[in-house]
Specification:
The protein is α+β, with helices and mostly antiparallel strands and 1257 residues long. One of its GO terms (molecular function) is P-type sodium:potassium-exchanging transporter activity.
Length: 1257
């Protein structure tokens, strides 16, 4: 899964993206804390092309302009107005002014030709005036603007024009008055208005004179309510006040209609539906199909019913296959309609009731029970052992334990898996109960945004579809020209035979159209699908087979695709400088693997024992932290029920993991183990188990957890507090009653730099005999067992951490702290977070409206809820001894997700094939870069970039990055869509992998979307073109090779078909020009096309891949099927057959009594050469003598069938009369043999020239 990180700064750069970003404050004073809600909605300055700084959900972006404006409006009304914050950070205000000015001109269509300013443009205009009144730095930023920029952005002439509203006119007059009175440079109001609008503005100033003197902006219509947001960084009481609700009574029923009108109904965007009839109709409106139908009609007109029947069969077959593929693709959209939750248990007016989920509004209190689906995005307020399965969003099948505490972070965006305090629409409660506040509904929910992104992706033709359509149009033009030329020549020589000339010309037109093209293309792709399925790549859309062969970029997830997806601990560095290793680290079986003491190079590592007397204190306490500061576990499945059984909690089928007293089933090799929880934490648990010290070992000693501080993205650490009995014989004492004496200690793990910054000392080597047990270092002692930190120790930790990261390991720091005897002390009061850190002199009541704001109906209806929520902090208070400070450093543990076997070789093949492999991961950039270098993805001069940097770049800027990064670390699924769009904008063909529902938009937008078959969700699979049954990167590369083979074969039979058909055309034209009788009759032309076109072409569709296929550079998506080189080959091959046949025909006796024999001889000669050309077309550049003659048995069968049909047509009495053929003698076959030899020589010469010139077809 991918993660996101905090953006530390937003540089002022013209390529900064429209998306959101945060500014990390240097100090948490009132100004910077308040600046965050403003900065969260502000991006960099606009670029010269004038795009909006806000992303738009209609364009597939993560947040809409309306959301941005609602957030800013709420901040103004409830945070700034009334002089509460007259000063804010200048940089933020400068960019806010740029953004507001840029969006004041946002328009919506009004009728076909007229446009009007949008509601968001009016809000931007209003906010511009209010910030001008309230904030000094905003006034300073506006004063630096040129008057021409203001005149262009404010559009005062439009706001005062005939089509404007009264509200727009009042706001325009008020803002004009503010600008002219505040700034000497803007004193002349006419400079701020276009000249042709002076009269309208003067009129408005007379009509709304009150606002000229008022020095204020008019009140905006509508209700100002809290914007929809996850609120993961807000406390419960703050959320209750924001949404004016109560956990005890919920919202009043009378307020629901107003809230629903403002927020909208809680329904997902409906996907566009396509009827079955329309799908079928679409199959018959394709240009090539229409062309074939037209030819079939013409054949019926000439009473050629056999070829007409063949054409109709081809058309129907193609329609059936095309309809099937489109019907399957539509299922991705149909599945979205099933994600809505029909009912919800809600608290309103103090009573619980079941209502339709679409009636929910932000502020509703929803009650969750086990087995229910979540009806909207919630901010959880109360939980009781609540666990929710979020696999539909994240792809993780393990239920996520929920915690209502706020997550302190400096970013508005947080990976969904890290939002422990939220529940998302359409996820399922696996365990426990909960109560939450509805904070997002309908389109604004996570599922709503994904649905909108998927349904908003229009149907885009694949490269092969576009190329075949273009080829068909070119062939029509070619046929029309040839018809005209042929008819003109014939009529010029024989004016009295106009009808016969037109019929022959029509037959030539039919000949030039390769009627087998559509059928052969479809069958070739279908066979490619079958072969790819055998390689564990399931193709959902037929043209994706060919498209995959032309990809230039493969953007692949790291975890589970490039790597095994199994995290394991490989190294442990302890504070005494000792390095330990773990064998079989990724195996979850606790009986497999040991801990080794790393030896010097060339020496065998020493395997350590698994008892207290065999392990040093530093190693034991480090592994204790790994095991106990952890909420994950390793379980063994019940073989009968296939249900995980936790060996530490399940008494009916206990599995003891302690290696000294194992109760494992008699056949350990048959036991299937499974990790429950975060993969990183599972790896830590497994590491302790392999050393012989699982959780159960410490629980048996009486160790009991009494406090926990969960990991969050701001602290980047997790800590737990344990208590242990202080009895002399505690090693055999399982009692931990409150009456016994005990001691307490804190165990901490997290980011190495964060853990080390919280430490004041470290645990050095313990002299032999000083302690009876390594665990004694945790007990209270008058003698200190630790040493203070030194610069040298800091350097040692940094060197060890850097070395591990360079090896591609994910590094965690470990530490501990003794507390005191019998408890950690009394609680102390804390200041909370967010606005509670503001200096009391300027701190106003939270969420209170300014005195000037008139109460609305919603305010009056929900006043009781707001009054019931006190302003005291609802943060969990931490005992002073339990805080994460004054720790003792223990060591570093390095974990790795090993690369899959064969991936390095696959990456090398991709490079040789001209394909750029891009790794996408949620890992830290240093770890990701190390793995990428190991796999060969990242070269020494390569580039890696973080997701937070990607957020700050526009799609154009990403596309122009040089060198283009091969590693994208700490990215979110939103970044994937942005990356795909950027690469496609520069003409690349992109394959994108993904597994969660939030990956679906990027997968659908990619040239080829690749979903994971094991880890992927159903929605992702249905949105994808290809599903990997084994989630393996090697399979993608194999699929690329198969895709290249498919296109290669398509090109071979296209060149073959056009060469053969053009040979007939050129032969007829040549005979017409020299005014000799035409060599074939109309019936012969059609019979030759039937027997010589489809069977050999079908055989070419299953031709094995040529050597060196994966050493060619990818085809450009913009390159047509026929290139100048391929056209030259077609002309050379067709002219070779034409001239040889023309020579034979001119040599023959064409007198009146022998003309039929000359026709039959020419027919036999040319048809045989065409069948031979089928063999010669098996390779485009390689000599036919270097190719295995029997490598494609289908070619032998196909040519054999065609040759037999030709013999039947020539020698079968009666049937040859229908075809106007007569039997030919042995001399003709000698001529045929000589012609074949000459054809082979010419073909070898052509391929030699292509190889020598380095040309590709």
């Amino acid at each position: 899964m991918t993660n996101d990180t905090t953006v530390s700064s937003v540089p002022s750069h013209p390529t900064i993206d429209r998306r959101l970003s945060f500014l990390a404050p240097s100090s948490m004073d009132g100004e910077t804390v308040l600046a965050q809600p403003v900065a969260i909605n502000v991006a960099g300055p606009s670029n010269p092309e004038g795009y909006s700084i806000y992303s738009n959900i209609r364009d597939g972006k993560e947040i809409s302009l309306e959301e941005i404006m609602d957030g800013l409006r709420y901040v103004m009304e409830y945070r700034i107005k009334g002089g509460r914050f007259p000063s804010l950070e200048y940089d933020i205000m400068k960019r806010l002014a740029d953004g507001l000015l840029l969006n004041m001109g946002d328009v919506t269509k009004r009728g076909r030709f007229r446009q009007r300013l949008s509601e968001e443009a009016d809000v931007a205009f209003q906010l511009f005036g209010e910030f001008l009144l309230e904030v000094q730095e905003f006034r300073q930023a506006v004063g630096e603007k040129p008057v021409s920029d203001l005149r262009h952005a404010l559009k005062l002439d439009v706001r005062c024009g005939s089509g404007s509203t009264e509200q727009q006119q009042q706001a325009a007059v008020a803002l004009l008055a503010l600008l002219t009175t505040m700034y000497p440079q803007f004193a002349d109001w006419k400079e701020l208005v276009k000249s042709d609008g002076h009269r309208d503005v003067q009129k408005c100033m007379r009509e709304h004179g009150d606002f000229v003197e008022a020095e204020k902006m008019p009140e905006m219509p509508g209700v100002i309510l809290a914007p929809q947001a996850l609120c993961f960084d807000r406390r419960i009481k703050r959320c209750l006040k924001m949404y004016r609700t109560s956990l005890d009574t919920g919202l009043p029923t009378e307020a629901i209609p107003t809230l629903r009108e403002h927020y909208g109904r809680n329904i997902l965007p409906q996907p566009p539906s396509t009827s079955v009839f329309r799908m079928i109709w679409t199959q018959f409106t394709d240009f090539m199909i229409l062309l074939l139908l037209a030819v079939a009609v013409l054949m019926a007109g000439t009473q050629d019913f056999i070829p007409m029947t063949v054409l109709l069969i081809v058309v129907v077959l193609n329609a059936i296959i095309g309809f099937t593929q489109e019907y399957k693709a539509s299922k991705a959209l149909d599945a979205l309609t099933k994600l809505s939750v029909p009912k919800a248990q809600v608290l309103r007016d103090g009573e619980t009731s079941i209502i339709d989920s679409e009636e929910l509004v932000p502020g509703d209190i929803v009650i969750l029970e086990e087995g229910e689906s979540v009806p909207a995005d919630l901010r959880l307020a109360e939980v009781s052992q609540l666990e929710i399965i979020e696999s539909i969003l994240t792809g993780e099948s393990v239920a996520v334990s929920k915690d209502p505490r706020e997550i302190r972070t400096l970013t508005r965006k947080l990976p969904l898996g890290d939002c422990k305090g939220n529940a998302f629409m359409s996820t399922v409660v696996a365990k426990g109960r909960g109560k939450g506040i509805v904070v997002r509904t309908g389109r604004q929910t996570e599922m709503g945004k994904i649905t909108a992104a998927i349904t908003g992706q229009g149907k885009v033709l694949t490269p092969v579809q576009r190329k075949l359509a273009m080829l068909g149009k070119l062939l029509v033009v070619f046929a029309i020209v040839l018809c005209g030329v042929m008819a003109g020549v014939q009529i010029a020589y024989n004016p009295h035979e106009i009808g016969e000339s037109l019929k022959v010309a029509l037959s030539l037109a039919v000949s030039v159209i390769p009627e087998g093209l559509v059928a052969v293309t479809t069958v070739t792709m279908a066979l490619g699908v079958r072969r790819m399925a055998a390689r564990k790549a399931i193709v959902r859309t037929l043209p994706a087979v060919e498209t995959l062969g032309s990809v230039t970029f493969i953007c692949s997830d790291k975890t589970g695709t490039l790597t095994e997806g199994k995290m394991g601990a490989t190294q442990l560095w302890t504070s005494d400088g000792t390095l330990y290793g773990f064998t079989e680290s990724t195996s979850l079986d606790p009986n497999r693997g040991d801990v080794t003491l790393q030896a010097s190079p060339g020496e065998t590592p020493q395997v350590l024992g698994k008892s207290l007397k065999d392990v040093p204190a530093q190693m034991l306490i480090s592994l204790m932290v790994s095991s106990l500061c952890n909420n994950s576990s390793v379980v063994v499945k019940d073989p009968e029920e296939d249900v995980p059984v936790n060996p530490e909690t399940e008494s009916a089928a206990t599995v003891t993991i302690d290696t000294e007293a194992q109760d494992i089933p008699s056949s350990p090799s048959k036991v299937e183990w499974k990790g429950i929880g975060d993969p990183t934490e599972v790896a830590l648990v497994v590491a302790a188990q392999k050393a012989g010290f699982p959780k159960s070992y410490f629980h048996d000693l009486g160790y009991t957890r009494i406090f926990e501080q969960a990991f969050d993205s701001e602290r980047k650490v997790m800590s737990v507090v344990y208590k242990a009995p202080l009895d002399d014989n505690n090693n055999n004492n399982n009692s931990s009653s409150s009456s016994s004496r005990h001691y307490e200690f804190v165990l901490v793990k997290g980011a190495p730099e964060e853990v080390l910054n919280r430490c004041v000392g470290y645990l050095p080597s313990t002299p032999a005999g000083e302690a009876s047990s390594p665990l004694d270092v945790l007990k209270p002692s008058e003698k200190s067992t630790t040493l203070p930190l030194t610069e040298e120790f800091y350097d040692n930790v940094q060197d060890a951490s850097g070395r591990m990261a360079d090896e591609g390991l994910r590094v965690l720091g470990l530490a501990f702290k003794k507390v005191k005897l019998n408890g950690g002390g009394a609680l102390i009061e804390t200041d909370g977070d967010g606005l509670d850190h503001i200096n009391n002199k300027i701190k106003d009541p939270k969420e209170a409206p300014p005195p000037t704001l008139r109460p609305t109906d919603v305010d009056r209806m929900t006043a009781a809820n707001v009054a019931a929520v006190l302003d005291d902090d609802d943060d969990e208070e931490i005992p002073p001894g339990y805080d994460e400070s004054e720790l003792m450093f223990l060591g570093l543990i390095g974990l790795i997700d090993p690369a899959r076997a064969g991936v390095q070789e696959s990456v090398r093949i991709c490079k040789e094939a001209g394909i750029t492999v891009v790794m996408i991961t949620g890992d830290h950039i240093q770890t990701a870069s190390a793995i990428a270098k190991e796999l060969g993805i990242l070269d020494e001069d390569g580039r890696a970039i973080k997701g937070e940097e990607l957020d700050l770049l526009s799609e154009q800027a990403i596309a122009e990055l040089k060198p283009f990064p091969n590693v994208f670390a700490r990215v979110s699924p939103d970044n994937k869509l942005k990356l795909v769009t950027a690469l496609k904008s520069r003409g690349e063909s992109v394959a994108m992998t993904g597994d969660g529902v939030n990956d679906a938009p990027a997968i659908k937008a990619a040239s080829v979307g690749v979903a994971m078959g094991i880890a992927g969700t159903d929605i992702t699979k249905q949105a994808a073109d290809i599903v990997l049954a084994d989630d393996n990167f090697n399979t993608i590369v194999e699929a690329v090779e198969e895709g290249r083979r498919v296109f290669d074969n398509i090109l071979k039979f296209i060149v073959y078909l056009l060469s053969c058909n053009c040979a007939e055309i050129f032969l007829f034209l040549l005979c017409a020009i020299v005014n000799v009788p035409l060599p074939f009759t109309v019936t012969m032309i059609l019979w030759a096309n039937i027997i010589a076109d489809v069977p050999p072409a079908m055989a070419l569709g299953v031709e094995p891949a040529e050597p060196g296929l994966m050493t060619r550079t990818p085809r450009s998506p913009k390159r047509g099927i026929l290139t100048p080189t391929s056209l030259a080959v077609i002309i050379f091959q067709s002219m070779s057959m034409t001239l040889l046949t023309f020579g034979i025909y001119m040599w023959a006796d064409r007198s009146e009594g022998h003309l039929d024999y000359a026709h039959s001889e020419a027919f036999t000669f040319l048809t045989t050469l065409q069948l031979l050309q089928g063999f010669l077309s098996r390779t485009m550049r390689t000599s036919i003598f270097k190719n295995n003659m029997f490598g494609n048995m289908w070619m032998i069968y196909g040519v054999g069938i065609s040759f037999v049909l030709m013999i039947i047509g020539v020698y079968t009495p009666g049937f040859n009369n229908i075809l106007n053929l007569v039997p030919v003698n042995g001399l003709t076959w000698v001529k045929v043999l000589v012609g074949c030899i000459i054809m082979v020589v010419l073909s070898e010469f052509e391929k030699f020239v292509l190889r020598r010139g380095g040309w590709t077809i």
